[in-house]
Amino acid sequence: xxxxxxxxxxxxxxxxxxxxxxxxxxxxxxxxxxxxxxxxxxxxxxxxxxxxxxxxxxxxxxxxxxxxxxxxxxxxxxxxxxxxxxxxxxxxxxxxxxxxxxxxxxxxxxxxxxxxxxxxxxxxxxxxxxxxxxxxxxxxxxxxxxxxxxxxxxxxxxxxxxxxxxxxxxxx
Length: 172
Fold this sequence. Notes:
single chain; alpha+beta; four-stranded mixed sheet; globular
């Protein structure tokens, strides 16, 4: 069989196999965030610590999601740029979490966000979130399945953390 026929057969098999959509897909397995950039190791550690907290409570681990990661990056950078720790930054081009979700095309059924400022490492930021009633509730929310995490440093040196939690509309 020549190369073009082999390629055609492979494409046809791929297309045919993609025509069925399972009624219920198995739960996703956790994937480690891409450890790139200056804070990649810290982001990965936060991800691991958050999932340890969830497992300790009998909850499934969160799955890393690139769209939620992009949302977290946008917000961490906004907070660093405007030197303001907040969930909503009116002067930013994407001021709200729903604005950011629409921008990255994340079809959300559930969204939540944790932000923090000034913690020196992954352990202390997760500890801070776990001692805050609202942040803890986001971490241990059984209605969220995915997450993205980002860290940005302001020109004044402050470390701004953002973790976005989500569940796709299609998975409700």
